[in-house]
Structure formats: structure tokens, C-alpha cells
Amino acid sequence: MKQTRLMSLVESVANVIVGYGVAVVTQILIFPIFGLHTTLAQNLKMGAIFTVVSIARSFALRRVFEAIRMRSAK
Q: Which chain regions cross the lipid bilayer (predicted)?
């Protein structure tokens, strides 16, 4: 069965939310090990930046692989 557009959107949003949470928690846990001390607000902002970069990366890779798939289907 094919995934509906709505469920694709739900999956994408859930992935972004979980990814953002993982990024922030990881920063809070790992940064002090390396002597980096940031506020919660700074961690939230950095997590947002990492999330935007991740979305752009994921989109670009998806488009590249879709182009490869379309070329091989010809």
C-alpha cells in the first residue's frame, strides 16, 4: 500500500520534532564534556539551526535519489 500525502506530512513533522529534541538533549549532555557551557536558550537556538540544516540536507538528498530513480526508469 502507498503512503498518503497526509501521512507523509505527519511522518515528516514527527521526524523534525524528534530530531530537534534529540539535537537539544545531545547538546545539553555533550557540550559540558568538551568544556562548552551554554544556556538553555542557546541550546534551543542551535537545535533550531541544526534542524533547518537537516531538513535542507534531507530534501536535497531525496531529490537527488528521486532524479536517479527517474533516470533509471527510462
A: 12-34, 46-65
Tell me the DSSP string of 10-59.
HHHHHHHHHHHHHHHHHHHHHGGGGT----HHHHHHHHHHHHHHHHHHHH
Report pLDDT for 32: 97
Per-residue confidence (pLDDT) for residue 22, from 0 to 100: 94
* CA max distance for the chain: 54
User: Do 4 and 29 belong to one domain?
Assistant: yes
For residues 30-36, average pLDDT: 97
Note the pTM of the prediction, 2 decimals. Answer: 0.74
User: How many separate domains does the chain show?
Assistant: 2
- 5: domain range? 1-35
